[in-house]
Amino acid sequence: MPSSTSENEVPKIPDVSLAHHRFIAQYGPEDQRDDAKQQLLREIEAKNMAPFYKYLTEALKLPFDSTLYARMEAANKEELQRFDDKAQDAEQNMGETEVNEALLGKADYYAMIGDKENALEKYNDLLTKSITPGTRIDIVFALVRIGFFYDDNVMVRSNIDKLKELVEQGGDWDRRNRLKAYEGVYLMSIRDFKGAARQFIDTLSTFTSTEMMSYQDFVKYAVLTSVISMQRVDIKKKVLDSPEILEVISDIPYLEDYMTSLYNCNYAQFFRALANIEQTHLRTSRYLYPHVRYYVREMRIVAYAQLLESYRSLTMASMAQAFGVTEEYIDRDLYKFIAAGRLNCVIDRVNGVIETNRPDAKNAQYQTVIKQGDLLLNRIQKLSRVIDV
Which contiguous run of DSSP H or E holds residue 387? Predict the structure, then answer.
């Protein structure tokens, strides 16, 4: 596990873990929702997050405590006045650097208490000033975190694009690695699991982005995105044999069983692990929750295809036994995937046999060319009709 020195630690502004609690309070398992609400309210009161309190009570339809809100709002005004006084003093007695530091502190405070509009305004004002390249990059990182905090993928994407340009112009090693971790989270949230896995695996040994998530969560996401997107040989090399993953995976429920059972072809154990992964990790992650059905479906296809690759034909009874399910379940599940063209096999229900009909590489390429050629011809015909009109 990579060690994080204090100089590499970034303040949790805004605290993304609060967005996790908000998600659990809204969409998480019923038995976790009340606890998530209580954790949110405790953090809000401890940090005097008046703007976020107002936003949260509206989002979750919670009772609004006007006395608590007034007390927190007063504390916010007092703290913001301190930043104004500091900026004014710096303007009169110091230099531009000290003025910008005070303004950055005020922007950070707005972000910390959940005042999105004012935080964005103050950060963007600072980006127009003469500041160091490192400070500019750190501000855009803060904008990305605000986007993650409010589930604003458009904001996250646009600021990640800015970060790529800034880092190329003068980002240090730590900021380059941090950008990979942030982009991995973004790609995972939009279902680009292959891109996310690449970024996660690249930064496993250099992870320092604890302001976004714990290292255990980072490993969890690295495994989940890798298993669904990588070839078997790459999973062995980059995941199963990774010392960074092996160091902590036993502390993450069900994850070790999940990745090893699939690789070792223990399909009944894999199906049980997949069910546990769905309930424990997919449905409790605000990044993966929108993709739960897709993820579970794709992993079933991966497992079925892996078994079928080893046989020209096998009985439905033996396949059902391998997966620890009934023949009726296998029949229904395979039928959907065969009809959709996701599995290359046919079911002989009368004889209770599944026969594989995998095309060879040349046939597969030929079919792809035919399909793409037909698509191109259709588009040309449509275009010609428009031109004729």
Answer: helix 361-388
State CA 159 to chain mean position distance. 16
Would you state the structure tokens that stand for residue 77, as one six-digit string? 């005004």
CA angle 110, 58, 120 (to 5 degrees): 25
Contact between residue 292 and residue 282 where contact means Cβ atoms under 8 Å apart: yes
Phi first, then psi, for residue 149 (nearest 5°) are -60, -40
CA distances 389 to 257, 375, 378, 386, Å, are 62, 22, 17, 5
C-beta atoms surrounding 165 within 10 Å: 10
**pTM above the 0.85 mark?**
yes
Q: d(Cα 90, Cα 84) in Å, to the nearest integer? A: 10
Tokens standing for residue 305: 């295809």
* pLDDT tens-place string over residues 143-198: 999 999 999 999 999 999 999 999 988 778 899 999 999 999 999 999 999 999 99
* CA-wise closest residue to 289 among 2, 19, 51: 19
Q: Please tell me the distance from the alpha carbon of residue 175 to that of residue 134, in angstroms, as a whole number.
A: 9
Give the Cα separation of 243 and 248 in Å (integer). 9
Which among 302, 295, 280, 297 has a CA at the least distance from the CA of 189?
295
